[in-house]
């Protein structure tokens, strides 16, 4: 038996969480088209034969503008250490940016093998893929290997396992055979509610929303969650609640269905929206929400 930890890193919104979910074949990380969706390390566990692959999804590495951003970047950078392999992911349809170069500087600051992953090759010709590889070598340098894939449609993700297998360094498994993540159920509940908010609200909402369970009550046939949703401005509160509460109701219904599927129990969600001005810069509040250093 062997196992290893593989960190997936990159700038925001290149497809890291989508790749994680496809690798695990379960919904582990919440996904949206908004940058900065992932805020913590999330582990996805895949067992193939005698090998256990422990993938670590991370927030996008970026230059932070507030304390929440600092937390997210620190979480990602910490995930570069004490792992067997770093998978540095790029969006192949975009030019290599200063953000990609910033990630590159950080991944090269640790003594860990680095494999570069080019995502979204379904939108590229063979010639464009070769040009992208050339651009990578010129701007980012050489890598141990380069993998091309499309995370959204699971095209080429078998290559991840083929390459990662070579780097597994432990002769024990860290998780039981039936685990696909180490996230507590309550954390998945919080993230599910946040994902539904991201899907249904405008661009000004995503970075400004935090979700907290304030009470859980479990009965034989049903589990009840009381949940606070925090935003920074009254206008954001109005958007999430919607006219006559329609938006909040829609968010609650979709989250409840997904959570019920996860825990195999009837679920009752009570959602409240509260304004907490400038919470992303409030260290005490961030600590309370689990976003402290």
TrEMBL record:
Residues 2-170 form the Era-type G domain. Monomer. Residues 201-277 form the KH type-2 domain. Residues 119-122 are annotated as: G4. GO terms for biological process: ribosomal small subunit assembly. It is found in: Cytoplasm; Cell inner membrane. GTP binds at residues 10-17, 57-61, 119-122. It comes from Leptotrichia buccalis (strain ATCC 14201 / DSM 1135 / JCM 12969 / NCTC 10249 / C-1013-b). Residues 10-17 are annotated as: G1. Belongs to the TRAFAC class TrmE-Era-EngA-EngB-Septin-like GTPase superfamily. Era GTPase family. One of its GO terms (cellular component) is cytosol. InterPro entries: G_ERA_dom (IPR030388), GTP-bd (IPR006073), GTPase_Era-like (IPR005662), KH_dom-like_a/b (IPR015946), KH_dom_type_2 (IPR004044), KH_sf_prok-type (IPR009019), P-loop_NTPase (IPR027417), Small_GTP-bd (IPR005225). GO terms for molecular function: GTP binding; GTPase activity; ribosomal small subunit binding; small ribosomal subunit rRNA binding. An essential GTPase that binds both GDP and GTP, with rapid nucleotide exchange. Plays a role in 16S rRNA processing and 30S ribosomal subunit biogenesis and possibly also in cell cycle regulation and energy metabolism. Keywords: Cell inner membrane, Cell membrane, Cytoplasm, GTP-binding, Membrane, Nucleotide-binding, Ribosome biogenesis, RNA-binding, rRNA-binding. Residues 149-151 are annotated as: G5. This is GTPase Era. Pfam families: KH_2, MMR_HSR1. It is a peripheral membrane protein. Residues 36-40 are annotated as: G2. Signal peptide: none annotated.
